[in-house]
Amino acid sequence: MSELKNAWDVIKNNVCEEGLLIVLSGPGGAGKDTLVRILRKTYINLHYVVTVTTRPKRTDEIDWEHYHFVDDAEFDRMIAGDEFLEWVRFFDYRYGTPKEQVRSALSHGKDVVLKIETQGARKLKELVPHAVFVFLATGTEAELEQRLRQRGDLSPERQKKRLVIAAEEMACLPDYDYVIINANDTAFLAAEKLKYIIEAEHLRIGRKAITL
Prior knowledge:
The protein is α/β, with parallel strands linked by helices. It has a single domain, classed as Rossmann fold.
């Protein structure tokens, strides 16, 4: 019986039952918002962290659903109060990950998804190396260009700048644990692949709990 007990102790010492921290990045137009929206509808034990931003709200966006929109003064106050896990400046605006949202969800056993730029992901990899880093990309460069052209809120100049930034972001792909190709009309398949990654990570032997 003692040998059997020791065997179960091995399992307890090598299996982590706490929630995962999933960091999702990829160039604008890759479909990160669509992927997260599908996942939130189909994966119960998931908490999506709403990013705080100084970017103006678009007409189809809802505060505290797509982003939490604040002015520069409020963002500065949050920085001073150490309320961000990380924050970056991207396209003339600032984006930050609220620390308390992440802590609270993980403490309740939730899997937490952060949708952040590669700059922020690089910072998080230093702070939270045991997080799961997933990169989302389109099938081809032409496909990405087409998606950016279809965005009515981007001028031709900003579209070109987006493509330059996309090339820089793609260069960061080797820093990630997984890559998902979200080709045209395969968003649901891409979401399923992300679910498989989450399920596989829960079964990983020796996975470490997230500490913030």
